[in-house]
Specification:
26% helix; 8 strands; alpha+beta; two-stranded parallel ribbon
């Protein structure tokens, strides 16, 4: 006699992360996503393991909701957190300038997430770290965002410059708040 386990629930990572950061309680999250307590713990663990959340994201939540400290066993209720890379990279509909160490080094953000970005107009060498700053513009409701990133890919240079992908390697807590504000601003404009 073979036993089959029920299909695993697939959660929209972007939405549950926004709800966690908004401070929804465990009960509200379990109701919203039809999860058991173990299923919710599994989702928390997976989001932390995938580095889509940090323990600091749990600090604004009610006190009964500390971050999970262990992985659930296979026998426990578990969920799959959808982490489609493309869904996490937002593409701005308006130009967002980005600068290197020197204000004369200017590019444009092609896509952006909390973990990385694509840039056109600033060159890079795979494996090389660079410092960047996104400055406020009259249409961008942010403070300056400074961070360090490492080049992870580069397309061939064309007439208008290089297209380069960077992974964010160091960013302050203040800058991550501003980055999230920028992502929210970009996301508001998405259909």
């Amino acid at each position: 006699m073979s036993t089959t386990s029920p299909p695993k629930k697939v959660l929209p990572a972007k939405k549950i992360i926004a709800d966690i950061r908004a401070g929804l309680s465990d009960n509200e999250l379990m109701s919203q996503y039809q999860l058991s307590k173990q299923g919710l713990k599994s989702a928390f663990s997976k989001l932390l393991k995938m580095r889509l959340l940090k323990e600091a994201d749990f600090y604004n939540r009610p006190a009964q909701n500390p971050p999970p400290l262990r992985q659930p066993s296979l026998a426990e209720d578990t969920v799959i957190v959808a982490d489609d890379r493309e869904s996490w990279r937002l593409i701005p509909k308006i130009p967002i300038p980005i600068y290197g160490n020197n204000p004369a080094i200017k590019g444009e953000i092609l896509n952006l997430s909390e973990r990385g970005l694509g840039i056109h107009g600033i060159s890079g060498v795979v494996g090389q770290k660079r410092n960047f700053v996104v400055m406020p513009q009259e249409y961008l409701p942010i403070e300056p965002i400074t961070f360090e990133a490492i080049c992870v890919w580069k397309s061939k240079d064309d007439v208008q410059g290089a297209t380069v992908g960077f992974q964010i390697t160091a960013i302050s807590e203040e800058a991550i708040v501003q980055l999230r504000n920028l992502l929210d601003f970009i996301d508001e404009d998405e259909p």
